[in-house]
Amino acid sequence: MMVKRKSLVFVLATAMVAGPTLPAFADQPATAVEMTRAVTTRNAVAGPVNVTITGVEEVKNAAAVSDEKADISKEKALEAGKKALKDYFGITVEDKKYQTSTEYRKDWNSPDRYVWAMNWNYNDHMEYFYAGITIDANTGEILEMNKDGGKYNEQGAKVTTITREEAQKKAEEFAKKIVPGILEQTKLMDNYDDYYRDMYGGSYPVFYNFNYQRVHEGTKYDANYINVGIDGATGEVRNFGYRWDKSLPNLPKKDGIKSVEEATKIYRDNMNMELIYFPIRDQFRYEPVPKSVKLAYRATYNFADMVDAKTGKMIGWNGKEQDQQVKFASLTEKQIDDIYKKAKPIVKRDKELTKEEAEKAAAAVLKAEFGDGVKINSTNYVEGDGYWESAGRKAWNIEFSMENKDSKATDAKLGIMPMNGRVMIDAVTEEILALNNWQYYEGPYGQSFEPALTWEEAYAKAVEMIEKYHPGKIKSVRTEQANVVYQEMVDGKVIPPMEYYFTFPRKVNGAIYEENQISISFNNRTGKVQYFNARWQEDLRFPSTGQAISKDAAKDTLFKVNELELAYYRFNTNNDYQNPVFDTKLVYRIAPKKAPYNPYMMIDAVSGNMMDYNGKTIPIDAVNDFDSLIKGHWIERSAKLLAQQGIIDKNTFKPDAELSKLEAVKMLVKARGMDYYYPVKEAADKLKFSDVSEDSDDYRFIHMAMRYGIIENKEGKFDGDAAVNREELAVMMVKMLKYDALAQGKDIFNVFFKDQGDITPEYVGYVAICKGLGLLGEDTNFRPKDETTMAEAAAMVYKALGNINR
Q1: How far is it, in rounded angstroms, from Cα 634 to Cα 793?
Q2: Alpha carbon of 457 to those of 331, 353, 445, 494: distances in Å?
Q3: What average pLDDT does this structure show over 215-235?
Q4: Are the CB atoms for 122 and 180 separated by under 8 Å?
Q5: Which run of H or E residues covers position 488?
Q6: 3-class DSSP state for residue 719?
Q7: Distance CA 32, CA 134 (A)
Q8: CA atoms of 235 and 237, how far apart (whole Å)
Q9: pLDDT digit string (tens) for 23-61?
Q10: In Å, what is the CA distance from 546 to each residue of 542, 550, 756?
Q11: What's the CA gap between 54 and 486, in Å, rounded?
């Protein structure tokens, strides 16, 4: 017997939620490409339950927006756009070869403003070009501007030629030119790109992004900002973005606000450190089944992640307190027990389901969910990661279509397309792994309709589906769900949610493992299931939670690298996003003390260290003071450029230290670029070195070096700690550049070093190529048997970047 919907226990606390706060924009001459703002995204919905969000979004067909109210005509806008591109980017787009598009629309960042968005592009077999500019349709001020272009047959690789400091200077010169007097009222935000480039490397030039946020009376007001993007190869400004209020709104006074110490205590008391299991995979490629799982803590905030500086209350993204914006639902222990009792043991078949048996089982499921009229279109056998749900399993995937004559007229009236979808069935256990119904609505977005379900009814139906298909997992999932409720509006009309979505994550030892879950959604026009997926891997080993540090200790770690900052926070008080009514509060919010940390990183629950998204430790204290070690050194500039590209490791680089074989391999492999998708474990050539384990973090670098031909794969030790002499590095360098065959040519190379007789005869070609490419400098002695320093290696690698053959 199914759980009756009205018998479910619902814990409710409801209120409307305004749309997400978006940057304010102003009347001043500036803009950028529609670039991603370098502002930390706040996961305000992270909490102890799973969340459905019904969004506020008003959508209009751009073609239907009349430009009659625009003070700037289309012709004037195009003229202003062309002038700006010429004045600031040095680009002339008068030639008829350029295709032009112009759109009059609401500003995506501030819908109370209308803009002209214009684009010019050109593409042929030799070159390509693009430029875009967005201006305020009433004031004519530049809001965004960007460009791109190049030649298809350009010879040689582009190389990063300017450091971050040099790029920053260019960005600030440009900002002062295009929006004079504004930059001085801002603060440059930390950059988070470097850390992830450090992990992967690559010879491709760095693109520098600079985000400047407005500061008023020493406090950030990030609704106003300037963004500038600089091409690290050419030093050119590639994009610019700007939003600024000429006159600030009535900002709240700081009188009587909580101190930062008081706010920190409030914040700590209200935040939760949730214990989770985190999947560990090869960082360079996706594995359907992780090689292990790690116990971790993550901070959750129960939909309120800021402290109102005046009241001391926790508030969320809409400026409201948590109990004003969320409704919750859950099952009682008795309801869970009642469902679990109906479960039958999962039995693994001796023989897998045949195609015919799978189709018969699928037809039964489809009839139970949708009635008669099922047509099986195709059936295929899947194993591994072909589908998300089949990871680690053998399964049958059955695609179907369905047309119910009785509902055909009704569906046509509602604009609902004929149903089609798929069912996936485990070929060994006969479990239903997926049921997807791709019955979409066809017609203009924003038409009102009579909803088939309330959120509470949808939750009850979701529980019924778990009871029907996976009752034995009900004790192993978190049943609590939350719904952030706010009205979606289109052209001033309230539109019901199109779909209700629920995620029931796996629960092991009291900790959550979200990679295994049961996910269910319902079409709110029809009330039918739209998406049912069960991803579950029984063979995973979960470490005990007994060794986990306390929640307070995890909070201590989090606050070692994060702190509360006072900020002016602007939010929309109107549920109609297209007609915003903004208010501003003084809030305390958590922010990193420095990059690459952020408050949403996880903490290793056993060691207490900060972790990145690969599960690797991020040291809180720098292992190596890179900047001070290279300051004033002859390699300083090249080392900075290589570090910004992730080619040298700032934590291990010491310019005058001997270069080890492992460091040389890592540097050269990163210079060529890591192949993230190369299947190392499935590769035909396994490493033969006796001292390199497949579980080692260095394995992929050594394997890639073997694949690139930089080193030979042979029996014996790799000996990664061994020092590399100068002629050995020359050999590795030439192999990295793919000139190995040329270097082995007989009697065609001469070198003119005073100590050329000391060079190993078979290495002469390699040294000559390095010399010919300008990698060795002007020294008259080569010193082939001298051990290479890290600085010497860095100099050679940087000079080689422009010669890398792909």
Answers
A1: 13
A2: 13, 35, 25, 20
A3: 95
A4: no
A5: strand 488-490
A6: coil
A7: 8
A8: 7
A9: 222 333 333 323 222 323 333 333 444 444 333 333 334
A10: 12, 10, 64
A11: 6
